[in-house]
Design a protein that fits this description.
The chain is mainly α and about 325 residues long. It contains 13 helices and no strands. The protein folds into 2 domains: about 70 residues, no CATH class; about 220 residues, MetI-like (MetI-like fold, Orthogonal Bundle). Helix 5 runs parallel beside helix 13, helix 6 crosses helix 8 and helix 8 packs across helix 10. The termini are close together.
Length: about 325
C-alpha cells in the first residue's frame, strides 16, 4: 500500500504539470488580453501606455517564458498578483474556498441523506411504484443542466412567488452574520446542486444493491433464518457501498463543476464566481490559481477514493 501511494503521489506531478501547461496555453490562445479593456474604454489609452502596462505585467514576454516564470513562483507558494485589484491571488482564493466548501458540503450531506435510503428501498422493492418513480426522478436529474435548473428555481421561488432570495449569501441590508438569512439564501443553490447530484447516486447505489442482493451469500444468510433487516443492512448494504467509495472520487469533479455553475447563477462569491470573473477580465494569475487548486482537489479526491476502497474491502490490495 505504501509503495502504491508513493507511485500515485509521484504520478500526480506530471499530471498537474500537464493540466497547468494546457490551461496556460489555452488562456493565451483566447482572443483579447488583460489590456484589451483599456482599448474598449471610453477613454482609450495610447499604444505606448498599453505597451508600458504590458511590460510592467510581464505580458511582453513569450507565453512559454511567462508560464515557466509563473510555475517557478507557484512552486514557492507565490501565485502572483491579480491584474484587476493587485491583491495576492492566493489570498483571494483562500477567502472564497470556505464559501464553495459550504455549498458543496451542505449539498453533499443532503444528497447522501436522500439518495442512499431512496436507492436501497428502491432496490429492495424492485419494480414497485416507488422504484419507478425514483428511477424516473434519477433520469430527469441526470439530464437536467445545473444552470438551467437554477434559473428556473429563481424564476419560480424568487421572481414569481417572492419566497426566497435569488442571489448572494446575505441580504443587502444585513449588518452582520445572520444564520437564518444565510440559510434562506442557501436553499435554492443547495436544492439545485442536490437535485442534479441525486441522479448518479441513486442509479449507482440501486444497481449496486440489486447486484449484491442476487449474490449467493445473501441467499445463504436468508436461509440461515436471519431477519430481513439483518440480511439487507448488515450483509447486503455494506457490500453495496463499496462501489460508491470509488464514485466519491469521480463525483468530486462533477460536484466542483456543478458548484461553480451554481455560484455563477446565484451570484455566490465562491471560487467558481471568482474564476469566471477572472476569465472575463483576462486576469491570468487568478484564472491559473483557481484552475490549479481545483485540479489539486480533484486528483486528491481520486486518490482518497482509492485509499478508502482498499480500507473498506480487505480483498483489495495495491502492490
Amino acid at each position: 500500500m505504501t509503495n502504491y501511494l508513493i507511485r500515485r503521489v509521484v504520478g500526480l506531478v506530471p499530471l498537474l504539470f500537464g493540466i497547468s501547461l494546457i490551461s496556460f496555453g489555452m488562456m493565451f490562445m483566447a482572443p483579447g488580453g488583460p489590456t484589451s479593456v483599456f482599448l474598449a474604454s471610453s477613454h482609450p489609452m495610447s499604444p505606448v501606455e498599453i505597451a508600458n502596462i504590458q511590460h510592467n505585467l510581464g505580458l511582453d514576454k513569450p507565453w512559454y517564458v511567462q508560464y515557466f516564470l509563473w510555475i517557478g513562483n507557484m512552486l514557492h507558494g507565490d501565485f502572483g498578483y491579480s491584474f484587476t485589484d493587485g491583491r495576492p491571488v492566493l489570498t483571494k482564493i483562500i477567502e472564497k474556498v470556505p464559501v464553495t466548501a459550504l455549498l458543496i458540503g451542505v449539498s453533499f450531506f443532503f444528497t447522501i441523506l436522500i439518495a442512499i435510503p431512496t436507492a436501497v428501498y428502491s432496490a429492495v422493492h424492485r419494480d414497485s411504484v416507488f422504484d419507478y418513480v425514483a428511477t424516473a426522478i434519477a433520469f430527469i436529474g441526470y439530464g437536467t443542466p445545473t444552470f438551467w435548473l437554477g434559473i428556473e428555481l429563481i424564476q419560480l421561488f424568487s421572481v414569481k412567488w417572492h419566497l426566497l432570495p435569488d442571489s448572494g449569501l446575505s441580504s443587502i441590508d444585513s449588518t452582520g452574520f445572520d444564520l437564518g438569512d444565510t440559510v434562506r439564501h442557501l436553499v435554492l443553490p443547495v436544492a439545485t446542486l442536490t437535485f442534479v447530484s441525486l441522479a448518479s447516486w441513486i442509479r449507482f447505489q440501486r444497481s449496486s444493491m440489486l447486484e449484491v442482493l442476487g449474490e449467493d451469500f445473501i441467499r445463504t444468510a436468508a436461509a440461515k433464518g436471519l431477519s430481513r433487516n439483518v440480511v439487507i443492512f448488515k450483509h447486503a448494504f455494506r457490500n453495496a457501498l463499496l462501489p460508491l467509495i470509488t464514485l466519491l472520487g469521480l463525483y468530486l469533479p462533477a460536484l466542483l463543476t456543478g458548484a461553480y455553475f451554481v455560484e455563477i447563477v446565484f451570484t455566490i462569491p465562491g471560487m467558481g464566481y471568482l474564476g469566471l470573473n477572472a476569465i472575463f477580465e483576462r486576469d491570468y494569475p487568478t484564472v491559473m490559481g483557481t484552475t490549479i487548486i481545483s485540479a489539486v482537489l480533484v486528483v486528491v479526491g481520486n486518490l482518497l477514493a482509492d485509499i478508502g476502497y482498499a480500507a473498506a474491502d480487505p480483498r483489495i490490495r495495491y502492490d
